[in-house]
Each structure stands twice: as C-alpha cells, then as structure tokens.
Specification:
alpha/beta, seven-stranded mixed sheet, binds tryptophan, 17 helices, 9 strands
Length: 361
C-alpha cells in the first residue's frame, strides 16, 4: 500500500509544495497512510494530507476503542457540490471504522455569517442536505444529525466555554475578528466537543484545511476548560477541490463546479468548458502526450470518479503517452458523472423520507 501510494500521487510540484508549506507553517501533522486501515481513495491519493492528533484516532480504530467523528456544513446554498462530498466521504470512512457519527447543520453559523434565514435553512436541510448526506453514504441509523439552533446542549456548551478564549487568541488564530465570526467559532468549538458531554472519548473532525483554525481554537479551549476533562479533538484535512477552470474559487456565475445532483446537459456543458492538460491539436497531443497533473478532468477522476487505483493509474499513463485524448477523457467523465447523478437521484427520494422521519434536534 505504501509503495503504491507514492506511485499513485503523480501530481507535480505545484500544489503539494504549497501544502507542504502549510504543514510547516501551521505545525500540522502529516497524514500517514499506514496508520489508517482500509484507507479511502482520498487518503490513498494524497488528498487527505494532514491533521492534528491523528495518532489518537488511529489508536482508537486499531484497539477498537470508542471514538467519534463529527463534521458540519453551512446550509448556505441550494445544493452541495463535489468539493463538499469529500467531507461526507471521510465521515463515511470513519463511520465504517466504528466511529459514533455526528453530522450537524450549521444553521446558526449560516445566519451569522451569510445572513441565511434559520427557518429556511431548516427546510433546506431536511429536504435536501440531510437526504444528500444519506444518499452519499452516511448510514442514517448510525448518524446523529442535528441543527445548531435547536441543540440546547451545544448552545449551552458554547456559552460555558466562551469565557475560555481571549480576543488576542482570536487575532492570533483568525487574523481579523468580528462578532459574527466570534460567535460562530465558539459555537463550532461547542459542536466539536459536544459528543464528549455524553461519553468521554476522543473524536476526529474531517474537514477541508480551511477549517483548521477552528480545530486549533477547540484544542486550546479544551485544554483550559479543565472541569470538563475533554479529550483534545483531532482534525483530519483534505485539500481544496479546484474549480473546473483551474482556479481555487468556485463561482456560481462562472458555473465552474459540479453540484449534486445536476442534469446531464448541465454536466456536459461544464465539463466541455473545463481546463485540461491537453495540447492544441490532436496531432500534438498524440506526439507530446497530455499533462494530467494540470488537468481538471483528472482531478475529478482522482477525487471522485474512478474508484479503482489501477484503472486510475493506467489512465494517467495513457493520457501522458498520448494514447488518450482530452476529448475522450471528457466524454468518459461525463459518462461517469451521469452514472453518479443517476445513482444519487435513485437514492435521494428514499433518503428524503428517511430524513423526514428522523428524530432530529
Ligand atoms: N464552519 C463549517 C463550515 O463553514 C461548518 C461547521 C460548523 C463545522 N460546526 C462545525 C464543521 C463543526 C466541522 C465541525 O461549513
């Protein structure tokens, strides 16, 4: 597995170098594939790249000790996208490894930082977000879903812990501060520690690297709130999902990312505009080969669309050698995305029923 992993990450020096710098600058731990049994493809392919307190979680898994996994997403847009799916993939991984699983709807954070109406957010979450999480692989029988706004234990814990942070610490961790950010981050600290009110156990928070400041704050506060005897929560981080135009910013108006679900026409439209590592002409590509490391279609294959490592590697080889043209890659991506959406839609209606019958705070 280890040897293979090195081989699987074929990407050049661009992003990895930056991520290596992040690890150094922020004192992150590097993710070590060998520490986690049956790693998922995000782990095998270096997309999960760092964390904090990872040994504690790998130990809990290996020794079959209780631990939890918790994450959340703001219900700020109509739909989630493939980037958000990484969170669910990693949550599903830990669920399969025996974690008690908590998936929250960050409706208060969305209200504070995005001006989203709380009632509207609730509707959206029950009719879309939670069913989507179930369709993407979270087992509803083993997951506790909750809303920040109606979980009194979380809100109460946020108040109890608010005295444990200082403005200087906020400045050090977040740079700037504003009341809406302060209130949201204290709430997130409470989210992350809340499962430990019921049971003393370590926990892991799978999130994008952008959420690391919250994990730092939570670990600091957990250390100081001695009377609670919290385990310091762990964080596990995946890389950003680049937009289809190669930029790091997803933009609705540019249509440069894939939502879940999306119609076949719309998928085709977006994929056709995606940036590839292809050459100007088919002739040239046959001669020089493609550049999969710069190719957003390969990013999709890597993160979401091709499960099998051998198939993935073979495809990279064939693209590099000029055997596969970018046009064919795009057609294949469309085919796989269509299948993915079909499968999602099939599961979704049933998941909606399940979600509406769950007992959710
Ligand atoms: N801040 C997260 C976001 O922007 C949402 C969130 C709230 C969260 N509480 C959390 C994520 C606890 C992980 C753990 O989407």
């Amino acid at each position: 597995m280890m040897k293979k992993e090195k081989f699987i990450d074929p990407w050049g020096s661009e992003l990895p170098e930056d991520y290596a710098r992040l690890i150094k600058e922020f004192g992150l731990e590097e993710f070590n594939l060998a520490d986690f049994p049956n790693p998922n493809k995000l782990m095998r392919r270096g997309l999960v790249f760092a964390g904090r307190g990872l040994k504690e979680i790998s130990k809990a898994i290996k020794e079959k000790k209780p631990f939890y996994a918790l994450s959340g997403i703001m219900p700020s847009s109509e739909k989630i996208h493939l980037g958000n799916k990484c969170v669910i993939d990693n949550m599903a991984y830990f669920q399969q490894q025996g974690a008690k699983t908590y998936m929250l709807v960050a409706d208060l954070e969305a209200a504070a930082t995005r001006g989203i109406d709380i009632k509207e957010a609730r509707k959206r979450a029950l009719n879309y977000y939670i069913p989507a999480y179930i369709s993407l692989g979270l087992d509803p029988k083993k997951t506790k879903f909750y809303f920040q706004s109606t979980n009194k234990d979380v809100v109460g814990l946020a108040y109890s812990l608010s005295g444990k942070a200082t403005i200087n610490e906020y400045r050090a961790i977040y740079g700037s501060t504003s009341p809406s950010r302060i209130i949201s981050s204290v709430l997130q600290v409470a989210d992350i520690l809340y499962p430990q009110l019921k049971e003393e156990m370590p926990g892991v928070v799978p999130v994008g690297i952008d959420q690391d400041p919250h994990i730092r704050l939570t670990r600091d506060i957990a250390k100081r709130a001695k009377k609670f005897k919290f385990f310091l929560p762990s964080g596990i981080y995946h890389k950003y999902t680049p937009a289809l135009d190669g930029s790091l910013k997803m933009s609705k108006s540019k249509g440069n990312f894939i939502e879940i679900p999306e119609s076949s026409d719309s998928v085709r439209n977006k994929i056709m505009k995606a940036v590839t590592g292809g050459r100007k002409t088919a002739e040239e590509q046959k001669k020089l080969g493609g550049q999969p490391e710069k190719d957003m279609i390969y990013e999709l294959f890597k993160q979401h669309l091709i499960e099998n490592d051998e198939e993935f590697l073979q495809r990279i080889k064939d693209n590099k050698s000029g055997k596969i043209l970018s046009k064919e890659d795009k057609e294949y991506a469309i085919e796989l995305l269509d299948k993915f959406m079909e499968d999602f839609n099939k599961k979704f209606e049933k998941a909606k029923n399940i979600a509406n019958n769950l007992d959710i705070d």
